[in-house]
Amino acid sequence: MLVDSHCHFHLLERQRDTEAALAAARAEGVGHFLNVAVDVESRESLIALAERHPEISTTIGVHPSGTGADPDEERLAALADHSRIIAVGETGLDYAYNEDRPAWQRERFRRHIRAARRVGKPIIVHSRAAPEDTLAILSEEGAREVGGIIHCFTEDWATARALLDEGFYLSLSGILTFRNADALRDTAARIPLDRLLIETDCPYLAPVPHRGRENQPAYVRHVAECLAQVRGLPLERVAEATTENFFRLFPQAPHEGLADGAA
Ligand SMILES: [Zn+2]
Ligand SMILES: [Zn+2]
Questions:
Q1: Backbone angles phi, psi at 82, to 5 degrees
Q2: What is the pLDDT of residue 257?
Q3: Has residue 256 been placed in a domain?
Q4: DSSP string covering 241-252, please?
Q5: Cα(140)–Cα(188) distance, rounded to whole angstroms?
Q6: Distance from the alpha carbon of residue 8 to the mean position of ligand 2, in angstroms
Q7: How many other CB atoms sit within 10 Å of the CB of residue 10?
Q8: Contact (CB, 8 A) for 262 and 243
Q9: Which residue among 40, 131, 143, 164 is buried most deeply as judged by most CB within 10 Å?
């Protein structure tokens, strides 16, 4: 069984086809999905989807480049207080999108970490072109108390090492399969297997051989296959390890009754 540790069902172009995307993913052996919030306005629909499908867990948070409602710490903690919301995020820093590195991004990130610590839930971190500030804020805010995932990890080994030392899991996306990603594949070969996760970040970043088209949760299998190749391991071993890692981080994510060779 595979887990897609970061996807956006609600952002798929053909939203009406959630059932089809889910069926396609199941057919590829994907048994659990973390459907990640990018705003708080979608909270009710994210929860509704998670309540309809026990294999879809969800989160709450405002994306670092999001422009919608931006609740304070107390409100965020209240919004995170739901059994199907298992993490706070996605949150973090995106200096590629906001090149002027605005202070409000750092403040928003700190606020999410504080809310996560209040409710005792891990955080989902989006970090783009901002490794130093991401690390500094995680450390200053005591984020290791809740831990979480650095999603769509693309940084170098030194940054990987520092994030691992902060207690985080590193999640690899379809970028791992890109022709020009040799450096990332070298780094991925060095990350301890018990700290790795895989994701699609769909609808973005479709892996080879679907690059350039709309991504979907079923394609997390291509990330797993690439990681297996990079590590010189059978696919089953990578599937087992990344799935165990996910449920170690999120013991409250339902995974009873799923076909699971690793269980
Ligand atoms: Zn992201
Ligand atoms: Zn995302």
A1: -150, 140
A2: 46
A3: no
A4: HHHHHHHHH-TT
A5: 27
A6: 7
A7: 18
A8: yes
A9: 143
Q: What domain count does the chain have? A: 1
76 in any annotated domain: yes
Query: What digits encode the pLDDT tens for the residues 145-168?
Result: 999 999 999 999 999 999 999 999
Percent of the chain with pLDDT over 70: 96
User: Is 191 among the domain residues?
Assistant: yes
Domain ranges, residue 149? 2-249
pLDDT of residue 256: 60
pLDDT tens-digit series, residues 30-70:
999 999 999 999 999 999 999 999 999 999 999 999 999 99
CATH number of 104's domain: 3.20.20.140
Ion ligand 2, residues whose Cβ is below 5 A away: 201
**Ligand 2 center–CA 201 separation, angstroms:** 5
Of all ligands present, the nearest one to the C-alpha of 152 is 1
Residues of the chain with pLDDT under 70: 14-16, 256-263
For residue 53, the tally of other CB atoms under 10 A from its CB is: 18
Please name the residue that has the structure tokens 């989160």: 59
pLDDT of residue 262: 41
Helix, strand or coil, per DSSP, at residue 92: strand
Residue 14: what pLDDT?
Answer: 65
Going from the Cα of 257 to the center of ligand 1, the distance in angstroms, rounded, reads 30
Residue 254 within any structural domain of the chain? no
- 68-106 burial, b at 16+ Cβ within 10 Å, e below that, comes to eeebebeebbebbebebbbbbbbbbbbbeebeeeeeebb
